[in-house]
Amino acid sequence: MNNQRLIRRFSKTALVVWGIAIVLAALLFSKQVAFGVIVGGAMGLLNMRGMARGVTGLDINNPRPARMFFGGAVRLVVICAAIVLIAMTRSVNLLGLLAGFILVVFVVVAEGVREMRLISREDQGELSVNKGHEGENEGQGDGR
Q: Domain residues of the chain, as ranges?
């Protein structure tokens, strides 16, 4: 699967789950908790997009681990600074913020596991197809 399609699928799934979580938070808890989920989910989605851009921007022939490390460190500092500012101003419900942020992380992990299972099944299917054809070429020497 193409990396861009995979990232798009992760984003769409995260947006759907995030939307459901916002509605549930507003119905079951309060508007402040729902706003916290909105802010936390937005931070999580931005973090996911930053990670995806950093990973897909790597060049196999010319890896730059320092650039990837620096990008991740900057992202981490910005997220921590935003959380500290939000906590200091008490403008957003922190539990909602945490729930929204973690929700995006769980969606990314779940979609990653799902993708790995699909890849594993495809590989096993190829192996079982190739196993049936192993003995066909045994009697034909290749000159070795």
A: 3-125
